[in-house]
Amino acid sequence: MVTTKSSPRRKTIKHVYQLLYVEPRVWRRLWVPDNLTLAGLDQVIQTAMGWTNSHLHEFEIDGQRYGTSLDEYPIERPAKLDTDHRLSDVLGKNVKTFIYTFDFGDDWRHIVTVEQILKPDPEINTWPQCLEGESACPPEDVGGMRPANPS
Predict the structure, then answer these.
(1) Residue range 12-134, CATH number
(2) pLDDT (tens digit, 9 = 90+) per residue, 100-118?
(3) Which residues, 6 or more positions from 150, have their beta carbon under 8 angstroms from its beta carbon?
(4) Which residue among 59, 62, 111, 129 sits deepest, i.e. has the most Cβ atoms within 10 Å of its Cβ?
(5) Rounded to the nearest 5°, which phi and psi values hold at 39?
């Protein structure tokens, strides 16, 4: 179940999520309501990418880090809980891209590009929707796809 805080849906945000360091290119274009919490957005991304959400994640947005329950992080913890912040709270006028990282061992990093923020429209669904995308995600727990670090 996708988590939203109790407030009226104001806008719909159109994003493109692209998994970094992977060829062929893996990406999804999504619509999500702007009152979706970052925890809810994590669930949407996991579903769209075909993963099981069995690892920790983090959002890096406009210089701030947001993540799951702070007690779960074995390393430096994010400053803010993703359950406490909605997209409408964190996407300022100047935020056009942000980073979503899933599974710190495999380090699946996504660049998220905000393509449009749409005004409320009764013809647009109020729930998250995957509009299009390409390629299947790599399986979880394969060690990641980061570029090799030459010695």
Answers:
(1) 3.10.290.30
(2) 999 888 889 999 999 998 8
(3) none
(4) 59
(5) -65, -40
